[in-house]
């Protein structure tokens, strides 16, 4: 039994391309004591993965050349040497990697833990999107940093993306106004359909700062930033007093080195508005995963939380899925489905 | 009896100059019911005043052309129509203005209140420096936003300035290491003499980012930023995990419009380090003035808090004092003394 794998072929300078990885065939491993063998059904593509293929250090170790590309996914247990897991169980793991089969150690601590997928709660791939890392990111980012109050105005960049669409719905549940920024009218139509009150197409808007001022006449109380770059600058110039800014992602500038992210510092607005800006890495909050999943699932049952996926089919398309996600060509959470039902 | 006053003559484009104000002679007012007449002894020059002479709105209303320049000071009550104040009392007021005599209403709320100077606590001009607005700024900025812990590394820009020198001493009292950034070796010698552990001359240092990394081998836990600009960028690239950044001042870029403060956005460092950046306006915390003054005074009595002033003499030198303070040519808290003992 062969195990196809995508290995890191080069640390990209600038955007990743299909040549960033190469397809290889390895062996399927044997689960040792306390381990399981998982067949990958779904892989998740997320912007944080761009940071993992830099040669330098990020908040966690990156992928070395020749290693299997890191990435989370969902799969089926096809062999088990762990008393708590049996064949046929569905597992979600951040440590799955871009491969068709993985030997995993379920009881590792924290982010490395293998999580059980409850098929009664949702389709298994939900554990990669609104019940998984993006959902928990939106949940914690809003509840712990953004802290929207009734009547607040919440602006979300990449609003139809995996995190953004949940942020907008939590804003509405919190009694706040939600303003979406995205790249196409089709994405913005979707944002309106899930409750966003106002939308801004940043590609067709001449004066983004003025458009945000118009959409947010009393200023921006919560800015959930998934993009960085010029969108970030335009929102920062519209902060309300005592605003909260969640720095969650920076997909607009992530291909540049950190010391080349040049633009508006906004220090005048920060002082004038006494705003708080905070970086968010969801894995710091992984101990609250169960709480977040429980709440997200109940919101979904109540009909208050919906979610849009963008699925490509076939293991060979994983790099393509990553590249299009980084270019903003996906519409909804980017997934790859390996095994068709 | 004549009342010399400095009136705003022009909203400066770029740095303020002597021509930003013009000297005028007005009448000395009569205190109405509940008012006092104060003869100015000391005037305080502070960077926040630059924001007050912009034509646009800041966090509070600015000075209009032809109006007396705003600014705090200390003076002696020479006539009173208020039961709680008598001739000879010493008063401190943010509302004194650049004039030799002022009619004040002591019982206005908040920042507009006239404060009593306790001559037993300190020299009266201390109420403009370490017992006044700069002292309270350092106190609140460190206790509420910076929150230094024992073993933390605290970096302060404009470290020998009115706020910076107190920040450094509070860092040391908190068990933290304190690193000073300033413009001359003389200023940095002073910083060492009051307890700073390491110093960086930003004018003579080739690679500021590397110098900070060397002075802060485990990163910067608290960055108390009084300058903004390139110093800000260099420190931001050295933040430790879960750092706190106090955006207190931006004297390096304050002469530019807010949307021209261009430089490093630091979003990568903010995410990687999960840092918090917060703007500080001390007047939000004015209800804690008494607490801050009490604590600062006790630290001074204990010998744990010292302070350096830079005094010019004569009312005619007030604009000159402002211009040199904005250019960083002062050494210690900039004051003007109007009445010699």
From TrEMBL, chains A, B:
The keyword Oxidoreductase applies. GO terms for molecular function: oxidoreductase activity, acting on the CH-CH group of donors, NAD or NADP as acceptor. The keyword Oxidoreductase applies. It holds the Pfam family ADH_zinc_N. Keywords: Oxidoreductase. It comes from the Bacteria. SUPFAM superfamilies: GroES-like, NAD(P)-binding Rossmann-fold domains. Residues 16-336 form the Enoyl reductase (ER) domain. PANTHER family: PROSTAGLANDIN REDUCTASE, PROSTAGLANDIN REDUCTASE 1. This is NADP-dependent oxidoreductase. It comes from Tianweitania sediminis.
